[in-house]
Each structure stands twice: as C-alpha cells, then as structure tokens.
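note to self: dont lose this again. the chain is below, predicted strucutre after it. 639 aa total, dont forget to put it in the shared folder this time
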Amino acid sequence: MTNTILHWNVNFTKSRQKTVWWPKKTQRRQKNNPMTLRSKEAGAKFNFKIKPGEKPVKIWSLMWLEEVGQCIFIEYENDMIIVDAWMEFSANETLWADYIIPDVRYIKQNIKKLRWIVLSHGHLDHIWALRDLLPELGFPMIYTTPLTLWIIKKTFDNKKDMEKIRYKIVDPEIDLLRLWVFTIEFIHMNHNIPETMAMAIQTPKWLIYNSSDFKIDNTPAIGDPADLAKVARIWLEWVKLYIWDSLWAQKKWPTKSEREIWNTLESVIEKSTWRIVVATFASNVWRVIQLINSAIRNNRVIFLSWRSMLNNVEICQELWYIDVPKWNIRKVNNDVENMPDERVMILCTWAQGEEFSALARMARDEHTQVQLRSWDTVLVSASVIPWNEIQAMNMKDALVTRWVNLVTNNEMDIHASGHGGAEDHKLMLNLVNPEYFLPFYLNAYFRYEHRKLWIEVWIDEEKILMPNENWSIIEMYDNWCKISDERLNVDTILIDGKWKWHLSWEYVIKARQIMAHDGVVSLVFKIDPDSKQIIWNVQIESRWFVYSSEVRKVHTRIIDFVKSKYQQYTKKLPETRDIMKRIKDDLSDYLKKEIWRTPMVIPMYVFISREIAWKSADSDVEWMTLEEQWGNEWESSPL
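---
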C-alpha cells in the first residue's frame, strides 16, 4: 500500500514554507548592486556553500535537450518521482525506427525508490513512452486526470497490459498530493488540450515549479482561464527552481486567444457553400471540439480521417467534452463522395506534412476514401514545428497544384499555438518570482533566447542554469542550485517494430546510415577447402552504389582487386575468416580513394569442393554470419 494522501480544500501552513536568507525582491538584479557581483567573495557573502554531509535533491531529464516534450526525474536519498514520459518520433539519425523513448536503466536499478509517475497533460510527447515503460518498471502508480488516462489506455496495443495500469485521478482545483518526501500541488493552465496542469513540487530542500506546456489565455473558447491566482499564491512558498517550456519564448507578442481563432473558423465554415477539409493536430483537442461544434451548427456531417483523430474524438465523447448526436460524427467512408458538398466537413490529421498523414495522402491523391476537388476549401489550422518547414512546404505545393482553395495561418487567423510567447513568460516570471531558472525544451538557440528574456526581467545571470550537455544533473541544496559535475549514463532507446534497442549499440541503424549514403557491395567467394583456391569467379552484387552506366566497369575493378588481395593474404593468414576481414578493410579504403564512396562492404565465403561445385552449388555450403565477419564492432546488444 502506498503512503498517499489526497487533501481537499487545503489550508497552507507555515510547515510548508521555508525561511529565506534575504527578501525575495533583492534577488532582482539592479545596476551597481553589490549583491550581484560575480566573485568568490560575493558567493561567500551569500553563504553559497554545501554543508558537510548534505545530500542534494537531484533533478535531471531523461530526454535530449533538443527535443520537445518532458521526462523529468527527481531524486532525494531513497525516494524518486518521474514527471511525464517523453517520446519522439523517429529522427533523421535513427533512420526509419518508429520512435524514441527514455532510457530507464538507472530507475530499474533503483526501482524500490520509485514512488510515482505524475503526468501534466495528454499530449503524446508527454505520455506515449508509458506504453513501453510501465511494463518495464512493473506498472508503478500514475497520477493524472481522466482525459490523460483515457489517452494513455488508447496507446496500449496489448489489452492485458492496459488492464494492469494503476492510477489515481487528481483534480487540480482541490487536490494536494503527498507521497513520502515529496508534495505536489497542481495548477490548472491553458494549453491546446483540456486538463493541462503545472506543478509545484515541494522537496525536502525547496520548492520546484514546473510549468509543463502552457500559454495564458484570458478568454479561452472552451474551459477556464489559467489559475493565475494560485500561481501568485505559490510565490509565498519561495520557489527555488523554475523549470520552464522554452518553445516560442523568443516571440515578442502574446499568443492569440482561442476565442479569436474560433471566431475566424466559425466565419469561414458558415460562409462556405462547398466541401471543407480541416487539417489540425489530433492532439489539439480544444480545436477539434471547436470544429465539431461549428460543423453541427452549420448542418454539416463530420468525417474523421486517421486513427489518432478517431481515438481522441471517441475519448472526448466518452468524457462528455463532445456532446452531439453520434450519427453526425463518422469515420471517413465512401459517403464523403456521395453526400452534398455543403453538408460535408472532413477533419483530418496534419502531422507537419509527414508522408503518411491524412492531408499529405490527399495532396498526393493516395487517400483511399477522399479525392480532393478543385472547389474544396482546405484549412490548415496548425503551425509548423521548427525543422519541419521543408516537408510542410512540399505538401502545400502539392495542394495548390490541385487547385484547391488553401487557407493557412498566413492568410487568416485560424491557428493559435498552445505555447506562450514572450509576454506570457514575463507575466509568469513576475508571478512565480523564482530564485533559479532552468530553460527547458528545444535546442540551444531557443533556450539561450529564453535566457535573454529572463535577463530582461532582471533575473541574475548566475541564477540561470544552462546545461549544454544531454543528461546533465541539477543539484539543489539548502542555499543554492548548481549543474553537477556528474552526468547520467543513459542512451537513446529505439522502438523499431516489435524490437527495442540502444542506439549506440545497434548495428542495424549504423548499417542503414551507411547504405542510405553510399550503398552496399556484397561479395561471395567460393573456396576449395583443401587448396584454399577460389573456384570460378567471385560473385558480386551492389545496390545504391554506382550509376547503371558504370556498374560493369566498377564491378570488374572490384573483382580484380579482391582476387589479388585474396591471393596475397592466403600466403600469410591461415584462417579464411581473417582473410575476409582484411579484404573488407582494404576494399573500403580502395573505393574511398578511387571513386570517393564508402559503401557497406559485405564479403562472404562458402567452402565447396571442386567435385561438388560441378554438381550443385547449393550442397555442403558453410556460411559465415555477418557478426562473425565484422566482429564485436557490429554486434547488437538488446536491453
């Protein structure tokens, strides 16, 4: 039984507050203020020392600094918690693996310390990894809201595993969660999905405020504004460390209200007399709800395309976020082509123009149920995440060449980000008033732009923690926070089909990288086991290596080279396996020098007598495996 207490209508007492060494207002940096001098003497003045034997609270991220999402790990002595469970869809360096999840080897080694997993909201970059991590960690208790829990269950393919999920539902309006040495208070925030929560995490040292994803929307189209009153009250408990979402912090204007977006979308849908196709993120649940309500008011039937869109709408119906007649919402089918145009709205995924998103398939005329027409109106109600600009532009090119009426956020205000801009961040800074700040999410450029923003609001530069290496550890002591000299020893974990692998160990990804860039050359040597001589010619095959007009010439040169090397090494090396390894290295160097390419070279051999060779090349053949040829360098290591 877990030592868990859920409190309702909590009255905060002095027991949850800590006494600070100086008034909070003096932490604001001012010109010529001697309290902000950068010197060892100034540090000594403020007693920035570690007490003998003092153990810190350790905070680190189990995800890359460059990614969007969250998976924070907090530990103090014999207790640890995890906040969110990040995942990332396959990046360029993983070459067609399905997605990436955190490496939890350290947590598994200390599984008795793990007390809980708490989740901020239901976006996949905060929860998807649970489908892999919960079974691996023995299904620890998770604390979340109803919508997030339902989305988690939908991610599980195995029903038996789904039924093993242990959870407690929390209400950010009234619940205070106490478990062992940690206490969490939840704060309702605005985002583009319901039930998004920031967290005030009380540790044995000080208070950590984690914003998760947020924006400030004083006039949301659906739901309530962010609970800024609670944020301001948490300031009284002296926030030591502020962990903050850096996405769009460089934008110098506030994020638009969802009500403005709703008004624009409503106007377009109301005036259109033709078929409407709306592409948005399936995870942008508030926008999906708005679009469905607008369609019903304008007597349209909603056709949903793609599994993620279907799943999220189904969940919202079960939780009464969507309350419309069920026959008005359908999975896309052949009726979409037969129904009058003025009655049809197609709601589909956008997915940043990715190859298999619903709208991208429509643009290429590869969608099985929907064929775009020249008079269709296509609304792209989404923004392009950094680094996805090229594939998104390719999709837009394909759409406009089909003569559809394409409307994006550049023409009309039909999308607002779920992340706050600079003014949102400044307001939250003044409300929370932290002593230390940790910019979070995305690559160094965005985090350093976020840092500049906080310096503008007079936060001491020395109080901004800027780890530049993945898996750096933040240590929080009684008197200060610092980036530890210690780093967490973790790796990138790939989910590729039904397999789970460490990226640094897995030769499959390395092989894909080589083949994608320079191709592959395979050689088969037929060798007499007695004389060790080559029988007939060396068989050669290549793919993606040289152009068709050069194949014969290059193949001839390769065969002449390897036969010469084989004769040379046969006199020196008794083992055929060792000969193959030397030929592989020499041929790689030769190709790099002669044709400026470094393909994957795969030399293989079979022992076959001359008599058998004349009868059947398939008899009494002994093959050498890929791992045996290439040695430990290419051996795969499962988790």
